[in-house]
Design a protein that fits this description.
single chain, mainly alpha, Ammonium transporter fold
């Protein structure tokens, strides 16, 4: 091992890598609980598939495009096929280059998986797999280079401590474009698509919060005061967002919903992500509370439109990421590791943050549209109407999430008379029965 390696820093980033990796199955639980029972496996597989597809491409090419020395717009090819990624210290750091590569890979995976929430229950799985791979290389890797890999955003001084722009604005914008291009679910606007398992959704939200400590705190890449600051801010902002969201819900309906509380928690986490290493704890509370308002309004408005962003990825991640990025320019403090922000008399940082939001969203929208257009030219983007009505789990994966005991009989029958095996039927035995 290199003589200058810091054992505490290495252990800290190792644990943070594991925590961020946990966020992808946590997202699968969060999204899975929010959909209908007949689509739970497909929804969860859209998150799990990102581990294989994005993780592989990150190792082969994506990491190089994001972090290898290159132009201000894109990285070079020095690290293609993991060439040069060894146990030696990453330049200017105290942890092995190999560990930094793995840590950043978990970010790429969760970012791509987030998009799936906008197109669940109707997108063809094969088309989704192609989209994941292309989007990671064409959108995520270049934007990561712009901000963290020595690209133009970082050089301009645009702040993004742990991924407000790189992760949440890109994922939210891509989700919006994908939802528009794939189209709404059948019966959208005529039928209420109720969550089939809210406790599962809350479990996923709790695990996301747990993993987010590694997401934000680990981005310090060292055991130091910045890591403490980022971690504490990651704890505080969701608390404020939940309090504000519950107040808004109660004022509007007289009720506080569990789905709303879980959504608010995620909104607070999203909003503090770009700012967590640059603002005070009070600033984190303010960012969480403020972000809850526009996100709440965007989600309420979306429900009244034809847009079927199924799980409100744009409302929570896109809007939350944009609001958090701009508020970073307001609350960043020279006393807390950042440049002076608006509260310290400098308007310049707000302008830079706004520029970063606009460019990242515009680039992501254009490239996402082009990728989906290309895939749509060679295969349908969505499943057949009959398969969608029956539930995409059976049509796309040949299995279902819930059975009433007859599934075991079907398996036994298939072993002796596979041609006589009847088609598996969509379940109606979920905790909350869903109509087709």
């Amino acid at each position: 091992m290199p003589p200058d390696l810091s054992a505490p820093d290495t252990l800290f980033v190792l644990l943070s890598t594991a925590l961020v990796l946990l966020m992808t199955p946590a997202l699968a639980l969060f999204y899975g609980g929010l959909v209908r029972a007949k689509s739970i496996l497909n929804t969860m597989m859209m998150s799990f598939a990102a581990v294989g597809v994005v993780g592989l491409l990150w190792a082969l090419l994506g990491y190089s495009l994001a972090f290898a020395p290159g132009a201000t717009a894109i990285g070079g090819f020095d690290f293609v096929g993991m060439r040069g990624i060894t146990l030696a210290l990453r330049e200017g750091g105290t942890i092995p280059h190999l560990l930094f590569f793995a840590y950043q890979g978990t970010f790429a995976i969760i970012t791509a998986a987030l998009i799936s929430g906008a197109i669940v229950e109707r997108m063809r799985f094969s088309a989704y797999i192609l989209f994941l791979g292309a989007w990671t290389l064409v959108v995520y890797s270049p934007v990561a280079h712009w901000v963290w890999g020595g690209g133009w955003m970082g050089q301009l001084g645009i702040l993004d401590f742990a991924g407000g722009t790189v992760v949440h604005i890109t994922a939210g914008t891509a989700a919006l474009v994908a939802a528009l291009m794939v189209g709404p679910r059948r019966d959208h606007g005529r039928q209420a698509f109720l969550p089939h398992n809210v406790p599962m959704m809350l479990t996923g939200a709790a695990l996301l919060w747990f993993g987010w400590v590694g997401f934000n705190g680990g981005s310090a890449l060292a055991v130091n005061g910045t890591a403490v600051q980022a971690t504490v801010n990651t704890i505080l902002a969701p608390m404020a967002a939940m309090a504000a969201w519950m107040a808004l819900e109660f004022k509007r309906t007289g009720h506080v919903t569990a789905v709303g509380a879980g959504t608010a928690l995620v909104v607070g986490l999203v909003a503090i992500t770009p700012a967590c290493g640059f603002v005070s704890p009070l600033g984190a509370l303010a960012i969480g509370a403020i972000a809850a308002v526009p996100c709440h309004l965007v989600i309420l408005y979306r429900v009244r439109t034809r847009l079927d962003d199924s799980l409100d990825v744009m409302g929570a991640h896109g809007t939350g990421g944009a609001v958090g990025a701009i508020l970073t320019g307001v609350f960043t403090s020279s006393a807390w590791g950042g440049p002076a922000g608006l509260l310290e008399g400098s308007l310049a940082q707000v302008g830079l943050q706004t520029l970063g939001v606009v460019v990242a969203a515009a680039y992501t929208a254009l490239m996402t549209w082009a990728i989906l257009k290309g895939i749509g030219a060679v295969m349908p983007l969505r499943v057949d109407a009959r398969d969608e009505a029956a539930g995409v789990d059976v049509a796309e994966h040949g299995e279902e999430g819930y059975t009433d005991g007859e599934g075991a009989i079907l398996v036994l029958e298939s072993a002796t008379a596979p041609r006589a095996m009847p088609a598996m039927r969509p379940t109606t035995s979920a905790p909350v029965a869903q109509s087709a």
